[in-house]
Amino acid sequence: MFYRLKTDLRLSIITLLGVSGLVGITPFAVMRFLQGNMLAGVVDLAIMLSIFSGMVYAWVTGDTARSGFFMAVVSASGAVAVGAVVGEPGLFWLYPVLVTSFFLTEARYAIFINVAAVVALIVHGVAFSSSVQMWSFATTAVVVSCCAYAFAHRNENQRERLEHLATVDPLTGVKNRRSMDEELTVATSVSARNGISQGLVLLDIDHFKKVNDDYGHSVGDEVLKELVALVQQNIRRSDQMFRFGGEEFVLLMSGVDEVGLRAVMHNLQQIIRRFLKHPGGSVTASFGVAVLKAGETPEDWFGRADVALYRAKETGRDRVVYADDIDAPATSGAPA
Ligand SMILES: Nc1nc2c(ncn2[C@@H]2O[C@H](COP(=O)(O)OP(=O)(O)OP(=O)(O)O)[C@@H](O)[C@H]2O)c(=O)[nH]1
């Protein structure tokens, strides 16, 4: 529970709004019923129930986009209703709403919700004792909204940047090992559900240490970038490439059958041989390939591809080895 609150900002805002809404509005609802102000009491009760159901929906389904939008609309409508029914003291409820809307839903929806709420109160007009007060309210509402927008926007940018840094290899721009672990898990579950075949390729540049030693690290870096560009130009957009570490890369290919995979690998091997160069000549690579088996774990799947890569290196490099060819039981030719 705390992990979800820590990692999902929108869920934490929904929860904060839900809990503080319930705690903050309950005394007002009770007071209004006790004072006989039934309409205001019913409005408070409706807001509390809606906020509570939005919060429960977010926790149960994980769909914070929909529940966030719902809670932004509910809290803005509630604040307008309270302002319209209670008058001037009720206006203050709009300020927290103007801020939280930017954290609950997308900026364009939040702007629309905030403008609609302020306009609704101005058009209704009853909550204001003078036009000066009304325009002061409108101006401060705009200032609060602009500040909230700027803060939420910056926060979102930083979140995206951190996510990028955590998942992408800075040298080559492909996803890193951490993303690969997640995608392999996703691929195995998708395959278990839909039966879509999944191919896994481990690609390791041959004698890369010698490239670095002979021509320098920066030339080695260029070779890595060139390799990524070449491979990406020659695989489908839906295929994914990851840098596993050093000079080792991983390709995840969905929906490719055994025959298709062999054709793709033959093509990739030829292209690397022909076009991947260092100042002294061509660069080659070794490949280990495994097609996901039914019920296999990501670790076992990766392990088979790794064994195939090891075999490719062991048997001379610059070759593609398929895990299935290693797994296949040797035929003895003995009569049954
Ligand atoms: N330029 C550059 N080199 C890197 C980077 N990451 C790892 N390396 C180098 O990659 C080399 C890998 O060397 P080895 O593991 O011995 O592999 P290899 O020389 O390719 O030999 P085989 O794989 O057995 O063919 C090491 O020299 C590392 O320093 C990087 O980001 N840039």
TrEMBL record:
Its EC number is 2.7.7.65. GO terms for molecular function: diguanylate cyclase activity. NCBIfam families: GGDEF. GO terms for biological process: cell adhesion involved in single-species biofilm formation; negative regulation of bacterial-type flagellum-dependent cell motility. GO terms for cellular component: plasma membrane. It holds the Pfam family GGDEF. CDD domains: GGDEF (cd01949). It comes from Marinobacter confluentis. This is diguanylate cyclase. Keywords: Membrane, Transmembrane, Transmembrane helix. The keyword Transmembrane helix applies. It comes from the Bacteria. The keyword tRNA-binding does not apply. Gene3D superfamilies: 3.30.70.270. The chain crosses the membrane at residues 12-31, 38-60, 72-95, 107-128, 134-152. Signal peptide: none annotated. It catalyses: 2 GTP = 3',3'-c-di-GMP + 2 diphosphate. Residues 196-325 form the GGDEF domain. Its cofactor is Mg(2+). PANTHER family: DIGUANYLATE CYCLASE DGCM-RELATED (PTHR45138:SF9), REGULATORY COMPONENTS OF SENSORY TRANSDUCTION SYSTEM (PTHR45138).
